[in-house]
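Hi there. Long-time user, first ticket. I'm pasting a complex I've been working with (about 405 residues overall). I'd like to know whether the download I got is complete or cut off, because the file seemed smaller than I expected. Thanks.
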Amino acid sequence: MSGSKIKLATTHDCTGCMACVDSCRHDALHAVIRRDGHYYVEIDREKCIGCGACMKACPVVSGFAYGNNFKSESKPFAAWCRDEELIRRSSSGGVFAALATRVLAAGGVVVGAAMENSVARHIAIETIDDLYKLQGSKYQQSATQEIYSKTLEYLKNGRTVLFSGLGCQVAALYSFLGNRKFDNLITVDLICGGVPSRKIVEKFLSLTGYDNITAYRDKIDGWFDGKGIALSVEDDFSTKRIPLKESFVLTAFLGKATQRYSCMDCRFNGTARRADMTIGDFWGVKEFEEQHFNGISLVIVHSDKGRALLDESAVEFRDTDWNKALVHNPRIAIGKVLFTRYSLRRVFVGWWFDHLSFKNLEILYSNRKGGVLWLPYRAVRYVLWRLQLRYNRRHVERILSSFKD
Ligand SMILES: Cc1cc2nc3c(=O)[nH]c(=O)nc-3n(C[C@H](O)[C@H](O)[C@H](O)COP(=O)(O)OP(=O)(O)OC[C@H]3O[C@@H](n4cnc5c(N)ncnc54)[C@H](O)[C@@H]3O)c2cc1C
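Hi, the file is complete. Here it is re-exported in full:
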């Protein structure tokens, strides 16, 4: 295959997982951040020898037939970490930290997203002292260049690896590994609402003068009802907590209009997963009130390996059912965000961020009031939001009835 025959995922399908970049032995692929503020890949045709390794490593191009494992193999649980300190530093029930602690204590390696200078990046840690770096959700796309080859090295050396990431990143690891199977690999993916444009963070920092975003969530006001979703920022002299409603970074993320195109039709949020376990927030859970302040995770176990690790870790877990799991968190199984992919807000996101004032960006992507067009604009957004809710409800009903068949 010559270099010109190489076809990677399109702009609309590419998840930015970077497995292709990691697989290239000829330095022919490079990660770039395009004007929309998302990672993409560019091919240097001069260096490309057309070996096709990148196409095999790409979870989109190589294809992934997962089957319907939710129905046949998976089991949902309500869960939380027993360690008070670990759960406090985590976004939901601290299940990830408990699993990671178990793996590290047994001499294993844990891979996940850490934050440095407001940029999320996947790293591998080998000691409990570093666990805090991976704890907490960083609501942006993590840079994953080189993490797959690093993980492969650990696996080949016989180390147990707990690899965590978004569904696309876990799928990318498996595509990258190809036919190589490792009993010492355990994977955890997150329920994911999609990753927003980096422009949001850049604009916010450049206009406010803060140096860094240090966290997207805390438990100061508790966890239930999303109370802990608040931005922590720092400059040379102080740290500050910005509540959800006043934080453009968070409201624009939740508004979903700047997400990657692939997140708006995500094939990795579905009723089948490659990971051994999926974790997310157990939104809407009514039971276990004593845990509502500290946080409750929804854990979906997909394999014996996942179940074994859960059993061995310092996690309390209780049976729950699919109905409770899906109703308040349809993103577990539904990858589609309606109406947004081709909207002017998304298609010209780079242009708007380069040219509009912060106030107008807040009106366009967040909840700020202003201007004569604001009311009709909000009315349209409200109608589209209601239609999305209806779509989610129907889809969830269909999934639940398929589980009964
Ligand atoms: C972009 C994004 C969107 C999400 N959307 C949803 C959602 O719609 N519904 C829902 O229920 N849950 C969602 N989550 C997951 C949720 O925020 C918690 O991470 C999850 O409940 C695990 O919580 P925990 O307390 O067990 O662990 P925590 O300590 O809170 O989380 C640590 C884990 O998150 C991983 N992680 C953190 N940031 C990133 C990142 N940027 N990329 C990849 N991995 C990362 C770490 O590697 C580690 O595995 C999302 C997470 C991210 C990063």
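A couple of notes from our side: Residues 189 and 278 are 5 Å apart (CA to CA). The chain has a mean pLDDT of 95.
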